Amino acid sequence: MTREEIEQMPAGREMDGLIAHMVIGAQTQVIESDWRYDSQHMERRPDRPWEHMPYYSTEIGAAWDVVERLDKTAQLCDVTRINGGATYLHHCEVWNTSGEPYHRATADTAPLAICRAALLATLPTTPVPPITPAPDVTRR
């Protein structure tokens, strides 16, 4: 996933799954819908049983769990509401206490800004080279 994809990703269950896996460190699973129920998004953390995956990107309480998780991993988080003209925007910055580069995101809602900044913080700081196929080493 690239920086641009994260910056354009809308709030929703796809982002929630990425947060659960990449930031929270939980296993995730989608139970497909059938005639009895709608599809369910589940997560399991090492210290908990399977449970419904929180709506990290749309609910502030769940997004605050992301902030607390970042705090536990020595990453600081600053969330600010800024005047964007007719509406307000929410801005989130995440940085490491060891002085590594910080990551920032702006969105219409605080949960979305928090999730985008947290996902940006999981990206490697140096570009990862593309995987090239191994050369054919069969004997002739």
Task: Spell out the blueprint of helices and strands.
Layout: H1 3-8, H2 13-24, E1 27-31, E2 40-44, E3 51-52, H3 60-72, E4 75-83, E5 88-96, E6 103-107, H4 110-122
Antiparallel strand pairs: 1-2, 2-3, 4-5, 5-6
Helix pairs in contact: 2-4, 3-4
Molecular structure report:
This protein is of the alpha+beta class and about 140 residues long. The strands form 2 sheets. A 3-stranded antiparallel beta sheet has the order 1-2-3, with helices on one face. A 3-stranded antiparallel beta sheet has the order 4-5-6, covered by helices on one side. Helix 3 (about 60-70) packs parallel to helix 4 (about 110-120). The chain has one domain: Bacillus phage protein-like (Bacillus phage protein, 2-Layer Sandwich), CATH 3.30.2120. Strand 2 (about 40-45) and strand 3 (about 50) form a beta hairpin. Helix content is about 30%, strand content about 25%. The longest helix is centred in the middle third of the chain and has 13 residues, at about 60-70. The model has no long low-confidence stretch (mean pLDDT about 80). This is Phage ABA sandwich domain-containing protein. Pfam families: Phage_ABA_S. InterPro entries: Bacillus_phage_prot-like, Phage_ABA_S. It comes from Hymenobacter psychrophilus.
